[in-house]
């Protein structure tokens, strides 16, 4: 992690030794009293923290703001809509989505996805927040994606802005390459399917919901790989990458 994020920060703050961030600061960054580290508020300002004292109970530090919220967040106007996959793969998607700076992340059930994924401990235990936080801290941004978990693409579509451009990334035959499209001039959504792909019903639903179909090329990508490629291409077409 290249910035340490907190839910809130005061000029004088305390981080208990039981917090995972304590271990990172002490054992990974190897900081001592008087040292400084980058710190910020989730979806807020960023700045630098200075360690005033530390012991086995925790770290007391002061914090100085350097960037306002909008500048510190570093997010892009991209919504990633991705179907449920195995939790071990979903953890990578969560981390990478936050790292790339997507503003919204919608994880949806799908016709061909395993139904058990929806009830995984990753969601029920709130573990997913850890991976989103880890991605944001790696990218030195305070921006945290607005997150939604939905049972189907029908439910997911209700969360989409009618003013955004919507793209379905699929391996449909003869679909044009997403990378070859024109510049995107407004917020956009990229939809990535599950391990066994979208069903014909879902493809038709996306078309009726105003999605344009594009391809990521002739190779069949894993869902987590397709997410990174699609978001990166969208960022390029938006002119931010």
From TrEMBL:
Enzyme class: transferase
GO biological process: rRNA base methylation
Catalysis: reaction(s): uridine(1498) in 16S rRNA + S-adenosyl-L-methionine = N(3)-methyluridine(1498) in 16S rRNA + S-adenosyl-L-homocysteine + H(+)
Gene Ontology MF terms: rRNA (uridine-N3-)-methyltransferase activity
Main localization of the protein described in the UniProt heading: cytoplasm
Domain Ribosomal RNA small subunit methyltransferase E methyltransferase: residue ranges: 75-234
Coiled-coil annotated residue ranges, if any: none
InterPro entries, per database record: Alpha/beta_knot_MTases (IPR029028), RsmE (IPR006700), RsmE_MTase_dom (IPR046886), tRNA_m1G_MTases_N (IPR029026)
Subcellular location: Cytoplasm
GO CC annotations, alphabetized: cytoplasm
Alphabetical list of CDD domains matching this protein: RsmE-like
Keyword S-adenosyl-L-methionine found: yes
EC number: 2.1.1.193
UniProt entry tagged with the keyword Transferase: yes
Keyword annotations: Cytoplasm, Methyltransferase, rRNA processing, S-adenosyl-L-methionine, Transferase
Primary role: Specifically methylates the N3 position of the uracil ring of uridine 1498 (m3U1498) in 16S rRNA. Acts on the fully assembled 30S ribosomal subunit.
Family membership noted in the UniProt record: Belongs to the RNA methyltransferase RsmE family.
Entry protein name: Ribosomal RNA small subunit methyltransferase E
Organism encoding this protein: Parasphaerochaeta coccoides (strain ATCC BAA-1237 / DSM 17374 / SPN1) (Sphaerochaeta coccoides)
